[in-house]
Amino acid sequence: MIHLTRIALVTLATGLWAAATPAQDLKIGYVNSERVLREAAPAKAAQSKLESEFGKREKDLNDQGARLKAAAEKLDKDAPALSEAERTRRQRELVEQDRDLQRKRREFQEDLSQRRNEELAAVVERANRVIKQIFDQEKYDLILQEVIFAGPRVDITDKVIKAINAAPASTTGR
Fold it and tell me: Any idea which architecture 23-173 has in CATH?
């Protein structure tokens, strides 16, 4: 049994050594896609577009939340002087307003997520085209997007970001 284990280990080690030898001829690159989506000009433009598109709506929701909080604090302060019926009526109004605000916030988050996904999909598509161009032009054998560790020699993220920023939207967008 021990003899078979040794043979298996020697065979495995020999196989790994043999497989590693041709790997030196491989040209491998790595792209940090999170960095591309954070630093590339089209990604920044998409973020600015989303902020301008949703900024007013977000501010309105925050203002409505502040008004609701102020009304709740006023009710707490005024509660001892109010009749039971008036206190109950104002509590119901606050609960209804809070429900309405929560519904609007959910809708806002859904709309924002949908638009963010649309905008990021366009940026990702553009980045993938640029990565494919680099792959073809520089004759890479493999380009990875997610790795645990990568040395700077194989990290082509800066090259991808520069190419995306330099390329007009029409050549990489559609």
Answer: 2-Layer Sandwich (3.30)
Q: In this predicted model, what pLDDT tens digit does every residue of 80-111 receive, in sequence order?
A: 998 999 999 999 999 999 999 999 999 999 99
Which distant-in-sequence residues (6+ apart) come within 8 Å of 72 by Cβ? 94
Q: How far apart are CA 74 and CA 68, in angstroms?
A: 10
Sign of CA dihedral 13, 15, 17, 23: negative
Structure tokens at 19: 């497989």
Please say whether the dihedral angle defined by the alpha carbons of residues 161, 167, 169 and 173, taken in this order, is positive or negative: negative
d(CA 64, CA 53): 19
107 residue type, one letter: E
pTM of the entire predicted model: 0.67
Q: How many CA atoms lie within 13 A of 38 on its CB side?
A: 7
Length of the chain: 174
- Tokens 């284990």, located at residue: 5
